[in-house]
Amino acid sequence: MRSAIRYLFLATVIAALAAFGSGAAAATMIGKPSTPRVASIGPSNGQVVGVAHPVTIRFTAPVTDRAQTEQSIDIRTTRPLPGTFAWTDDREAVWTPSGFLPADATILVSVGSTRTEFRTNAGVFGEANMSAHTFTLTVGGTVVRTMPASMGKPGYETPTGTYPVLEKFRSVVFDSRTIGIPLSSPEGYVINGEFAERLTWGGVFIHSAPWSVDQQGYANVSHGCINLAPDDAEWVYHTIGIGDPVVTHW
Q1: 128: Cα separation from own chain's centroid
Q2: Is 133 a catalytic residue?
Q3: Of the four, 46, 64, 74, 96, which is 20 to 30 A from 134 by CA?
Q4: Which of the residues 133, 225, 238, 249 is marked catalytic?
Q5: Secondary structure of residue 69 in the 3-state scheme
Q6: Is 225 a catalytic residue?
Q7: Catalytic residue among 53, 133, 207, 223
């Protein structure tokens, strides 16, 4: 009888421990959700971009643990690259390099089991000097062209800072309403532009401006954009690329 009672007691204890362990394991799984699958990574595999280009990772489902997900993202050449994360929404993380990516390099991006790679160009930099009224393009550390330019006039000054090229347009319509200037204003306009590169989502571009050629190199007369002569703007359009940094300063 005593042996039977002891057996039943031990069996009860073992069953309780098994149940506790199973519950603990389940609690651990719920507390640390796995990272959703990757929907896309930009730049795309094999793409060549400028040294200021960010890396954008889009997931197939909302991310509940951003810190854990960021830890699962590895961006490197032969060693990890420093950078910071920002989230545009609950499915998209944007990694921005600290400083610039190395030029002429292969950048490897790993997120869990997803792998991709892209390349950087030789290092194309633009410089808008608003005091000298010039725009200079440097490739691989060598100045290849300095052009007369006109930047933002008083009240519409071109912002200072470093801006990667976001988009390029062979032709584009510039509408003052997109930057808060009504068409009824003396400053209002709708202009067909050419050879344009977007620097900010707020409406700052580099572009061809035949209407301000006489002021380029001498005065700032734009509404914030970097105005170039048609031939110079076309050359810049074919030389500068997405992700190339442009520095604007006085």
Answers
A1: 21
A2: no
A3: 96
A4: 225
A5: helix
A6: yes
A7: 207
